[in-house]
Structure formats: C-alpha cells, structure tokens
Amino acid sequence: MDYTDYTYACLEDLELKASFYRSEKAETDRTILYFHGGGLVYGKRQDLPDEYIFNLLEAGYHFLAFDYPLAPESSLRVITQAVKDGIYWFVENARSTLQLNQSDYVLFGRSAGAYLCYLMAADETLPKPKRLIAFYGYSSLAHQAFTEPSAHYMQFPQLPETVISRLIKPYPIAEAPLQTRFALYLHARQSGKWLDLLTDSSEDITTYELTEEQLNQLPPTFIAHSRTDKDVPYGIAEKLRHQIPQV
C-alpha cells in the first residue's frame, strides 16, 4: 500500500515521522491516528499488519501512523508531549498538507499505544477525538501487574544488568526492533521496575493516569482484549468497560 511520510516534530537530532495512507473510499474525510505498542520501550509506527490498514482504508478511513520517542532514552513526560505534538500537527495540517476537508480524527492504539491514546483522549488542550479504539490498553500505570515482578516473565532466562545497560542509547530514539529491545522490556518486567524506565522517583505517576471523571467523559470507545494476555491483565479491560459510558 502506498503512503507518504511526514516529519511532524524533532527531538534533538531525531526526526519524528508519521506515515499517511489515503483512502480512496472516503466519502467524508475521517482519519485514524495510530500509535504502536511495545511497552513504550520498543516498536515502530508501521507495526500494524497491512490487512488491518487495508480494511480501514476500504471502510473509508484515512490512516496516519505516528512515531513517538521511546523510553528510557526519553521520559514519559517527553513521550506524551511528542504524541500531543503529533495530534496538533495533524489538526493544523489536515487541510493544507494532507489535502483533507476536515480534521476530525479517531485515536487508535495497541497496548502502550492505547494507553497513550487514553491520555490524549482525556487531554482538554486537544480537540476531542470522535472515537477511541483501544487494543489491550490501560489507563493507569499504577496497576499491581506493572509495579511488581511478573510471574509470567520470571519463567524466561534473566540477563545481567551489564547486558541490559548496553541496549540503552545515549540519544533519543523512536524505533527499536523487538528482536533486540525486547530484552530490555523483559528485564524491566522481571524486576518489577518497568516504571523506572518511564519516570524518575520525583514524578507522581498519577499524573499519567485517567481519573474516574475523565473516564466517564471519554468518547465512544471500542475495547479489544484477550483473556490470555500476559502483559495487560484482562481485568483492566473489564473495569474500563464499566467505567467508560459509551463502550
């Protein structure tokens, strides 16, 4: 499928890009803004299988997939600001650069990307998305599954700190392959220190979660989850289903 890449922001020497896929079936311009998964430490903007993108384009949606900075080279504060910048870029360039008639958008994320979408959907400084699509997402980092060693990941071999430290770059990155970077995420989940990769001890993680009131005000939301998910407990999706009015 054809797409066009745009640079929406720069972080030091790192260009943050977005890939735009235009739908030829769109009767009214509707655009899905997509943010990939990867525990905020690995992944890339073009990780969604082509079949998904094809079906969305056939359904009349344009599709825009974003980079965002990865942790721990960039903090969660920097990551969320970059995601916000990406949404602002779309809204400001929908007509002039992308040649769309309107800037209405739907947020779509997988796992960590869905988490970022939850944060953005509740951000009152941004134009409200029309819809939210959350694949195995979460709205808070404070869940016990994220703050304690994972029984599932403890079954895997454990790598020494010296090996893990070599995976961390001295500069910001926005793309990292699963094959090598997963070891960093694995170590973080084995040690129960995943949040240490995202924030420092001086930050309050409740800054990066949705309140009950914010959840109640989310736009119509589609939630997809698996009962066998080892990263994000299924119970999180069940709770969100009851907290978000329009699911």
What is this structure's SSE topology?
Elements lengths: L3 E8 L2 E8 L9 E5 L14 H9 L3 E5 L9 H18 L11 E6 L1 H10 L9 E5 L8 H4 L13 H5 L12 H14 L2 H5 L13 H5 L4 E4 L9 H10 L4
Parallel strand pairs: 3-4, 3-5, 5-6, 6-7
Antiparallel strand pairs: 1-2, 2-4
Structure description:
With 247 residues, the protein is α/β, with parallel strands linked by helices. It contains nine helices and seven strands; from the N terminus they run βββαβαβαβαααααβα. It has helices at residues 50-58, 76-93, 112-121, 144-147, 161-165, 178-191, 194-198, 212-216, 234-243; strands at 4-11, 14-21, 31-35, 62-66, 105-110, 131-135, 221-224. Strands 1-2-4-3-5-6-7 form a seven-stranded mixed beta sheet, sandwiched between helices. β1 and β2 (14-21) form a beta hairpin. The mean pLDDT is 95.
| Run of helices and strands | EEEHEHEHEHHHHHEH
Main sheet: strands, sense, barrel:
7 strands, mixed
Structural class: alpha/beta
Number of helices: 9
Rough outline:
globular
Instruction: Report the mean per-residue pLDDT as an integer.
Output: 95
Identify the strand order in the major beta sheet: 1-2-4-3-5-6-7
- Rg from C-alpha positions? 18 Å
The percent range for helix content is 25-40%
Which range does the strand content fall in? 15-25%
* Residue runs with pLDDT of under 50 for 5 or more positions: none
Number of strands: 7
The N- and C-terminal alpha carbons lie at a distance of: 31 Å
Keywords:
single chain; 247 residues; alpha/beta; 9 helices; 17% strand; globular
